[in-house]
Fold these 2 entries.
Entry 1:
Amino acid sequence: MENKLTRNIYFIPYALWILVFVIAPITLVLYYSFFDIEGNLSFINYKTFFTPTYLMMTLSSFWYAFLITAVSLLVAYPTAYFITRTKHKHLWLLLIIAPSWINLLLKAYAFIGIFGAYGTANAILEVLGIGSRQLLFTDFSFVFVSVYIFIPFMILPIFNSLNELNPSLLDAARDLGASKWTTLRRVIFPLTIQGVKSGCQVVFIPALSLFMLTRLIAGNKVITLGTAIEQQFLVTQDWGMGSTIAVFLIIFMVLIMVATGNRKKRGAKNER
């Protein structure tokens, strides 16, 4: 009885946090989504969201989020695999994660200097004889900077999965005559798929709602759901439409979390 009472007491701060910072904001967003720009109760915002303009913007957001996630995964998996086989793997992991501690705005402005007309990237292109190129305010610069920012969050869960992998399984695959590629494809990757799914989740969801990089790095040439929400709240002052876009963004995020969630417990329950 005492232990149950103690658990209930410890649960109170958690419940208050969820209520104030999760449930209440979502409820407010849902509430405002039913009001038009003049403050009248209406479903016009939901009707507007399903127009071609907003549907194309949603598809564009998913495309860029998918692209950022796919590139991050292609770079992160071999990087994490290499780190787990080094002597000082935790030191290397720390060096990769350390840049994520720097303020996002500072990193964005740093890349503005690197990709600018007189920046480091164009200076290298001049030395190589390629010539100066317009790198800033392009899809390439937006995806590149986004991948740079999100890649530590992709590497970390994959590294943890690879680090927990039983070495005897790799020895068994080698003894059975499996090549390195076969071992990676048939043993290592399937056993670390949960780390991959976790990495994709923590990259895809925030990439879907990017808005600051679209302004600073892409020059507003890339429009995402996050950019649309910012414009509706700060530019057009249409809180209802901004809230409606946010509602659909929350729904998309929940669906992604469900799709990439851990089904291990469900499988274990079925086996019983």
Entry 2:
Amino acid sequence: MVDNRYATALVIGSVLSLLATVYLSVAVGTQHWYEYRSPAAVSEANASELRALHDDFLGADFDEKTYSDTLFRLNGTMGLWWRCILVPTHSHWYREPDPKMVTECVSFTLPQQFIPKYREPGNHNSGEDLLRTYLWRCQFLLPLVSLGLVVLGGMIGVCACLCRSLTPMLGIGVLHLLAGLCTLATVCCYLAGMDLLHRASVLPDGVDGSLGWSLYLALISCPLHMMAAALLVWAARSHGQNYYRMTAYRVA
């Protein structure tokens, strides 16, 4: 039999784990980790420049400076696997009133995630920036590791339920703790990488950047994972101590 306190802790821990996993999955799959607010086109010459940036953004060539400049100028949003811009529905980039805008997105392919970053974005002769390169790689690998740990913990939890044992919950709690730390490291790597990018590529005048809701979802999932870990570890340890005490009492 499982004490009601331990059963309640397991249920709450499972719910927190599910919420954290959903939040992190949504964050990984969306592009609103960082958002730029750009001024609209003010002349036909400016509109032509923006159209050229748009064409380069959708082109086959992958260059950090090209897509970064386009994100800066076209109200871009960027995530771990997506980069998006806001463009007019028609060819009229400059007219009164403002044209209706739509979002166009391009995904980062797996090989592109491993492309080195340079001290001067777009300038391959400036030398590789190892810090930015590994921050970029960590920011998309760590959330996958986090989700993998949670899935592994869920599989162990199903086996524990079938075996009617709380002992594996201690290991599941440790897995959730590691998942929370990986999520926190993801957010830290992303923020550090964006800060270094903005130092290497100065934002144009009138362009503002801010954190997006996808990043906040990932940030929220971190304490949820850790709270779930604390509840699971407490339930496993407390139940184990209580079980040993009862066994010793019966033997005595």
